[in-house]
Amino acid sequence: VTGLRRILVVEDDPDVQEVTELTLCDVGGFEVRIVATADEALRVVASYRPDLVLMDVMLPGMDGLGALARLKARPETAAVPVVLMTARAQPHEVARYRELGCADVIAKPFDPATLSDQLRTIWSRG
Amino acid sequence: VKERLTALSSRYTLALRDYLVDGGEATLLEAYELGRTALGLKLGILEVAALHQEALVSALKLAAPPEGEKLAKRAAEFFVEAVAPHEMSRRGELEAKSVLSEIVRKLEEKVRTTQEELDERARIERLKDEFVSVVSHEFRTPLTSIQGSLGLLRCGVGGGELSPKARRLLDLAQRNVDRLVRLVNDILDLQRLASDGFVFDLAPATIGALLDQAMDANLAYAAQVGVALALGDVPRGARVRVDPDRFLQVMANLTSNAVKHSAPGEAVTIDAGCRDGFVRVNVSDRGPGIPAEFRHRIFQRFAQAEPSLDHGRRGSGLGLSIAKAIVERLEGRIGFEDREAGGTTFFFELPQWEGECPEPPSPGGRP
């Protein structure tokens, strides 16, 4: 693997943005770009070419599920793993997210000590 | 004839009043309809009687509770008796009709207030559900920032070594964030359980495997506070049909409750047995027992007795209500009893699953 793994974070709350960025950069050693809306994520994803998208389900405007569907529908982004962050999701909700193509579901609030390792297992699963 | 008619129509009135008081809503609506039909058609009393009988028979079919059925039958008999004498005076007919109109008026009133009450109750329930789910989501964003910041400081992202005192303070803050997260999760779970918004993924499983998992999940917390957790006799092969996650949630709530009320060095015992088609699971402690004044409301929300031994992990006060709601959704029952040598046993009973183990459900095949 050459260079840092790149993660695109889609999250609208500024404080959660900062905490997530510090977690992924300082603890995880990833390169991170943060956007606040699903629309922006869809705009930048082609040029940023992330190795993973970490996205909140509840977003203003288009929600995380809408963005997930669009990412999976585009050939150039279909292979990028998408991890959703949600409130306390029930098993049947998690099952639905997975059917939509999401690689993993992370409950909020997440633990900064383990988040990066959780994301790494997704790549190792291939 | 007149005397007999008066007596009979008052009996009829009484019978229908019983309806108003005890009858189910289906019965009530039927009775209302039949009364209105009779008056509206301005038929002779014999025709009215025939109509009534017809309507009452259909009410019998609709009215589920046996009392409603009994009353409907009685009312039908009374009315037929009342109009049996063929030479009914004009006066008798008027009296019968005035009795009827009185009944219809009361029924209308009852129907109206019942509907208003139901609407109001539904509105309040809806507001409450919305409120709970908004609160649960709105709490999560700030909690994520706080949890994140604390976790990052503990990971050393702040730079420099943390003094022991700073670390203690961070641990304290972390414990309380955890507690707040548990509280928010418990409130959301309870609301989902109450509103049937919780989807249960039911599958048969042996009680042995389920209790092994429960032991694994709860040993660490018990050990942390110096309480032993022991698995006693279990009919390992007996099966129950449960959602494993929800079963483990009940076990976690009962176990942490028992641990919380145990002194260090004491043991909490989990065991199980089969009886009368039910599998019963016991979680027993040697704690101080449940104060008499607290016993009747122990399963109520936010009910907590005297400050427990605590061990630094305060519960949300919702654990037992959640356990009760889950057990009841699984068609079981939950309770507690004093142990002879002191302490308390919390238990729950679930129907024993006798069926064959079906194919595992296909992914996405849930409702």
Q: What distance lies between the first and last C-alpha atoms of chain B, to the nearest angstrom?
A: 64 Å
Overall outline of chain A: globular
Biggest sheet features of chain B: 5 strands, mixed
Instruction: Give the amount of beta strand of chain A, in percent.
Output: 15-25%
Would you count the extended β strands of chain A for me?
5
Largest sheet of chain A, described in full? 5 strands, parallel
Low-pLDDT regions of chain B? 4-15, 23-28, 39-43, 57-65, 84-88, 357-367
How confident overall, as mean pLDDT of chain A?
92
- Portion of residues within helices of chain B: 55-70%
Low-confidence stretches of chain A: none
Q: Record the strand order, biggest sheet of chain B.
A: 2-4-5-7-6
Give the oligomeric state. heterodimer
- Percentage of residues in helical conformation of chain A: 40-55%
Shape of chain B: globular
Notable features of this structure?
heterodimer, A: 126 residues, alpha/beta, five-stranded parallel β-sheet, 5 helices, globular, B: 367 residues, alpha+beta, five-stranded mixed β-sheet, two-stranded antiparallel sheet, 9 helices, disordered C terminus
Layout of helices and strands, plus pairs?
The complex is a heterodimer of chains A (126) and B (367).
Chain A: E1 6-10, H1 14-27, E2 31-35, H2 38-48, E3 52-56, H3 64-73, E4 82-86, H4 91-99, E5 104-107, H5 112-125
Chain B: H1 2-22, H2 25-41, H3 45-62, H4 66-83, H5 90-154, H6 164-194, E1 203-206, H7 207-224, E2 228-231, E3 239-242, H8 244-260, E4 267-275, E5 278-284, H9 319-329, E6 333-338, E7 344-351
